[in-house]
Amino acid sequence: MTRAPNLARKHGAWYYVERLAARDANGNGKRRWHRLCNASASNAAVMAAYKACLARLHTAAITPREGDLPTELARYLAIRRTQVSPREANELERIGREIARCLAEFRVGDVRAADIDEYLAAYADRRRTAQRHRHLLSGFFRWAIRADLRRDNPVDSATRVKRPVPRTGAMTSAIFWRLHAALPPAGQIFLELAYLTRQRAHDIRIMTWAQVRDGKLVIQPSKTARSTGASVEIDIGADIRAALDRAQSTAKVRALRGSETPIIQTAGGTAYTRWGLHSMWQRACRRAGIEGVTTLDIRPFALAEMERAGVPLATIQRAAAHASVITTEGKLRQHRGPAKVDATTLPPRAAVDTGRQR
């Protein structure tokens, strides 16, 4: 059996485990794993790769941290930040920090499909989260191939993440008004505007008076800002005007038309944070005795109400600022219920050929 200091066998391969001076949050020393060869290699081949690795670490001309996964991931995320919305950039940063923490001991070229599986196993009960982490890893390793840091994408060979269970149509008219009664005034205005505009909760939460122009409410969805660039102009009808008037009358900071003052304000006069809105929503759900309904359910419910009113699908797509009608279909599907099929009958009887010959 091959023996040498800091030599370890893992996932069908031999590794040299470099002990680093840095320590993690628990005070444990960090390690970096250098892949040497397959586990089936002979002892002589393992020792030759082991000595070559030691020599490379001591005499390499590259910068000490070049090729480390956390370092290269930070370079990749710096590029991605310029291609997505600020909200998506913050989400990528959060996921990137978790990946860098868990895979800190790896160099980019040493990560294998088994390592990806081991990392994603921590999110086995959260499929949507696992999908997001897998997607970021896949994009990173595709970039690493172009940057000549490795030759393949280990995510392609990793176990596929099962699709999340689709949401069902949790929001109904009855639930809408029960929640409306349980929410504070700011929450009621949010719920009304989210339904009447059919836009995402994030865009309603940060909406300002500068978006109210010439009898229209102009919304640039943050999700499409860097893709299709689609924006929506919504005529201010009686219900939207009533909601805006309530927002102005209850504002803590004087709401000047045309200013960047948020329409929906906290007690301090600022826009609600994501978690502040979530907390307010959860308290209202508990007061109303409702479970399983989130702010994500308002938009599909509002779009489904348009479909039930006979609005053409193309019009619904434009109102939702969807680039594809397939996306609109997906939002509507959860509120359509089971398919209705007319009663069927057996095929008409025909003369039976017994096969007898006379």
Explain how this protein is built:
This protein has 358 residues and is mainly α. It has helices at residues 43-59, 69-80, 86-102, 113-120, 127-146, 154-157, 173-182, 185-197, 201-205, 238-250, 274-288, 298-308, 313-320, 325-333; strands at 7-10, 13-23, 29-38, 212-213, 216-219, 232-235. It folds into three domains: 7-59, no CATH class; 69-157, Tyrosine recombinase, N-terminal domain (DNA polymerase, domain 1, Orthogonal Bundle); 173-333, hpI Integrase, Chain A (Orthogonal Bundle). A hairpin with a 2-residue loop joins strand 4 and strand 5. Helix 13 crosses helix 14 (325-333). The longest helix has 20 residues, at 127-146. The radius of gyration is 29 Å and the shape is globular.
